[in-house]
Target: Transporter substrate-binding domain-containing protein
Amino acid sequence: MKKNKIRRMVCALAAAVLTAAVLTGCGAPKDCEGEGKITTIEKGVLKVGINLNDGSMGYVDESTAKPAGFAPDTAAKVAEKLGLSLEIIDTTEENLLNSLDADLYDCVISTVGITEWNKEHYSATKAYADVSSVQDKLGEKAEYTKLAVFGKKGSCLIPAIQNQALSPLIKDGTLSEISKKYLEKDIIIKK
Model:
């Protein structure tokens, strides 16, 4: 009789633990809330990796000594929408994703195209721009022309950027204006 009571208590406890795990989203990143509320950004600063030797996409303005171009202006608007200040970290095109892995910054906004390998190893927003029509301004032909913001795999930052920043900036025309300013053409993918 006592064995049955213990067995029932163990089964009830196991069922309670299993139910709690399902209800709390076991397996989901612990820093996520709802639609990707950011809870991991340190000191209210969004650190963005950008290649500042990338023509109209990103460069250092000689008159101000500050980052300028499509990627830095986009990063500034994304940070603003998220209610964060912005720190741009300059890196080479080859090191954009490698330095993301090394935790040098929170995300990459640059000419990194959406590839199967990138999607497998990183989290990415939906494509927000297609640079195929402005490749002559970029200085080289890219095989993958659809751009996204990349972050670490499983990061809640990427859905937050998509939902709270990119989608509103596309909808209100801000990203289109930035692309026209630097690339003389609207490269933004309409949703």
Observations:
- The two ends are 64 Å apart (CA to CA).
- Confidence is low (pLDDT under 50) at residues 6-31.
- The longest helix spans residues 2-23.
